[in-house]
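INFO batch 0412 | record 1 of 1 | parsing
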Amino acid sequence: MAARQKSMSASLMGTLAASCLLLMALWVQGGAAVPIVSPCRLDRANFQQPYITNRTFALANEASLVDNNTDVRLIGSKLFQGVKMMERCCMLKQVLNFALEEVLLPQSNRFKPYMQEVVPFLARLNKKLGQCHMECDNQNIQRNVQNLKDTVKKLGESGEIKVIGELNLLFMALKNECTRPGQSSEMDN
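INFO prediction complete | emitting tokens
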């Protein structure tokens, strides 16, 4: 029994020593932790709710009927060009934030009743992604997001309609790039 207590005591001392070393390392760095590229993931269940999925696609479809510019695609392969797989969610976080702040909220009185249901859903996703610390320093991300913003601004109201008309594509991109199949995350609450 004494040997077992001594073994457990030694194990506990080892754990304490390792914890002290970790704390000292953080103290030397000024308390800053090393950033992780993209540990945050949305719960896949967010994208498996038939009602909100149908409303999102119906909103996009309704806006697409008004969209006269069929030559421009905002959410597509060009947006992801040069962006590593691990950084795509980080980029989509910026795209979603732009879509909400610059297009959806100012246009919230259009495309009723879909807009009133889809915007709060996307705002919740944006809030969950906003709680994450994601490093988006990649120049390709910044350039691609800025190109999207510039295109929308250049097209004016037509660009805003295009953003709404491509919400189905943004929805699917968020589902594909910002979730882990079959796993829940720390952001599920």
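INFO post-check: The radius of gyration is 22 Å.
INFO record closed
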